[in-house]
Design goal:
The chain is an alpha+beta fold and 549 residues long. It has 19 helices and 22 strands. Helix 6 packs parallel to helix 10. The longest helix is centred in the C-terminal third of the chain and has 25 residues. It is flat, with a radius of gyration of 30 Å.
Length: 549
């Protein structure tokens, strides 16, 4: 069977309605190799209807050899002959190339989506090579000499502020003993032979003068907006600053639009902002650190009534997606710039800044960060504005006080989902969190052991709710009772279902196995159902059983 039309990464080409030339096939394959790979189908209409491949393309071995000889560097493809509704169809599977691929005739192409969502083949221009190679981690643009850059472009005042930042975050760093020249070399702010040094792109971005950044890295800009519906209340046009000053500038612009909420209970006293300060700072640093500086566009900050949107040019680095952000190995489009920002304490040293974005967003009872608006050319993060959930904040604070440390991001995700949905099975927790099952299982088991989460049932029907302790502290015990009664009702329903499928009867041991109960709990449940007239007890000893009335 052919994949569904929605799953195809290429547009259909009909061999019968419009014969496809050999050159056109090669061009499509080159475009796929330069994008994300995919499968090209020959002999299929644009609407997905199989009509049959042309005779000259039926020799799959010859077709693979033809592609190999008509691409530079030579590309190996996997070709398969399929039969759909009695028609021969050729599938050509193309891998994502780690190099820039061209046709033997010199055409370098890529695939992109048109406004209507259908793909097209367009040129991949030389100016786009840097973005393509950086996306694959094969080229570090930030480590290259800045075009037209001069040593005097590095600002002494910015360098001193960078030193101060390192002193604050890592007072033992050997960099603090270096003179300016060795300091710049050690951090990769300059490159080149001794006496011929020039600032790197990372150097200019970090401590370059504003004039030199505009001249040498004109894409390095930011813009800040505050929207009241469709009307801008604040609209700051794109501006450039060295990153040692940019982060404080953006934080200052954000401060009036991020009020604190005071929460007090017993020994717990917490000031909770609409947007967690650490989460915001990590998201801001990530946007500048991982953006594509070879692509036109600004890092954009937009605040409105719904929340905060941070977007930056350049899609996710290859190997990272919205679904694996929390588990993928840390990767950067600009490794040298990332190293400078980590050394100075701006960026998370472990490269796990995204964890802090999630933790900061969830610890106050907010929603999970939303990256769903990201595209192949832009990463978009939305953090929803929400009045902090006082009960949730106190629960997290109390549990962290008891443990003597922060809850893991996995635990916070589980607690947040249970707060939102009240009751979830393990399957649902995995589905909603989009995490590996082992992460969710580990977090749930830890929370159950801590008494923050309670479990009911067994097997696939086993579900989880926040514990009575949590509901009590939130003055919401009636909600807990409702959830507990749901569990009891569900257990009775499963017993009745088992009896119906078991010839109208069940034994105590069968109920123990079904619901994961002890003998006395299973016995009490069956006796309660007997008292309600839902079951009738028959027999004694080994022949004891409960039957449907």
């Amino acid at each position: 069977m052919l994949p569904s039309e929605e799953s195809l990464t290429v547009e259909f080409k009909s061999e019968l309605a419009r014969p496809q030339s050999n050159d056109e096939i090669v061009e499509n394959i080159v475009a796929l190799a330069n994008t994300q790979g995919g499968t090209l189908y020959l002999g299929v209409e644009d609407d997905g209807t199989p009509t049959g491949v042309a005779k000259q393309h039926g020799n799959i071995n010859g077709l693979a050899a033809f592609v190999f000889n008509k691409t530079v560097p030579q590309q190996t493809v996997r070709v398969e002959l399929l039969h759909e509704d009695g028609h021969p169809v050729v599938a050509i599977e193309v891998d994502n190339s780690q190099q820039i691929v061209s046709t033997s005739g010199g055409k370098t192409l890529q695939r992109r989506l048109k406004a209507d969502g259908t793909p097209e083949v367009v040129p991949l221009f030389v100016a786009q090579f840097i973005s393509r190679l950086s996306q694959q981690r094969n080229y570090d643009y930030s480590d290259q000499p800045a075009p037209g850059g001069r040593l005097e472009d590095l600002d002494d005042g910015c360098r001193n502020r960078l030193r101060s930042r390192i002193r604050e975050t890592n007072a033992q760093s050997s960099l603090l003993a270096f003179d300016d020249r060795d300091f710049d070399r050690a951090l990769g702010l300059v490159s080149g032979p001794e006496g011929e040094e020039a600032p790197t792109v990372a150097g200019l971005l970090t401590i370059g003068s504003v004039e030199s950044i505009k001249r040498c890295v004109p894409t390095a800009s930011a813009m800040f907006q505050v929207m009241d519906g469709a009307v801008p209340r604040v609209n700051i046009d794109p501006f450039a600053l060295p990153l040692v000053d940019m982060f404080d500038k953006i934080s200052g612009l954000m401060q009036p639009w991020n009020p604190d909420h005071e929460i007090m209970s017993g020994l717990v006293h917490v000031n909770v902002p609409d947007f967690d300060h650490q989460a915001f700072r990590e998201a801001m640093v990530n946007a500048f650190c991982h953006r594509d500086y070879a692509r036109i566009g600004s890092v954009r900050f937009m605040v409105d009534g719904e929340g905060l949107t941070i977007s930056n040019p350049g899609g996710f680095i290859e190997g990272v997606t919205e679904d694996n952000l929390l588990t993928a190995q840390p990767r950067s489009r600009n490794p040298q710039l990332a190293l400078v920002l980590k050394t100075a304490g701006f960026a998370e040293r472990t490269g796990r800044g995204v964890d802090k974005i999630y933790i900061g967003s969830l610890a106050s009872g907010g929603a999970m960060p939303d990256y769903s608006q990201s595209t192949a050319t832009e990463v978009g993060l939305f953090i929803r504005r929400a009045v902090p959930d006082e009960a949730f904040v106190l629960m997290v604070a109390e549990e962290e006080r008891r443990r003597g440390g922060e809850l893991s991001v996995w635990a916070l995700i589980v607690l947040s989902l249970l707060k939102e949905h009240r009751r979830l099975t393990m399957t649902q927790l995995c589905e909603f969190s989009r995490l590996e099952k082992r992460r969710v299982v580990g977090a749930v088991e830890d929370l159950v052991e801590s008494g923050v989460v309670e479990a009911a049932g067994s097997g696939v029907s086993r579900s989880y709710i926040l514990s009575s302790k949590v509901y009590k502290e939130a003055n919401a015990l009636p909600a807990y009772v409702r959830q507990s009664n749901i569990a009891a009702t569900r257990g009775k329903g499963l017993v009745l279902e088992l009896a119906e499928k078991n010839g109208g009867e069940v034994t105590t041991s069968e109920v123990m196995e079904l619901l994961g109960l002890s003998y006395i709990s299973a016995y009490r449940l069956l006796k309660k159902m007997e008292g309600e007239g839902k079951m009738r007890h028959e027999g004694n000893g080994p022949s004891s059983r409960y039957v449907l009335p």
